[in-house]
């Protein structure tokens, strides 16, 4: 949940998922990739349905 909020707040500064977007997000949330992993697993499972 916090990851999603940080992600969306980063979109206020960077419209697209470019390198600057991920850099800003990493500055706000250094453990972002750890938090993102369960969401990515969920997305993969959803696609397989
Ligand atoms: Zn996004």
How would you briefly describe this protein structure?
By secondary structure, the protein is mostly helical. The chain has helices spanning 2-13, 19-28, 32-48. It has one domain.
If you had to describe this structure to a student in words, what would you say it looks like?
The chain has 49 residues and is mostly helical. It has one domain (2-48). The protein is 80% helix and 0% strand. Helix 1 (2-13) crosses helix 2 (19-28). The model has no long low-confidence stretch (mean pLDDT 89).
Question: What labels would you give this structure?
Answer:
49 residues, 3 helices, mainly alpha, 80% helix, globular
Helical fraction: over 70%
**How would you spell out the order of helices and strands?**
HHH
Count of separate DSSP helical elements:
3
The small molecules bound here are: zinc ion
Overall 3D geometry?
A: globular
How many structural domains are formed by the residues?
1
Radius of gyration: 12 Å
> What is the tally of beta strands?
0
Instruction: Point out poorly predicted stretches.
Output: none
Mean pLDDT: 89
Strand content: under 5%
Oligomer: single chain
Topology:
Elements: H1 2-13, H2 19-28, H3 32-48
Helix pairs in contact: 1-2
């Amino acid at each position: 949940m916090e990851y999603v909020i940080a992600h969306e707040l980063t979109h206020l500064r960077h419209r697209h998922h470019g390198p600057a977007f991920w850099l800003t997000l990493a500055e706000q949330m250094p453990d972002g990739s750890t938090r993102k992993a369960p969401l990515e697993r969920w997305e993969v499972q959803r696609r397989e349905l």
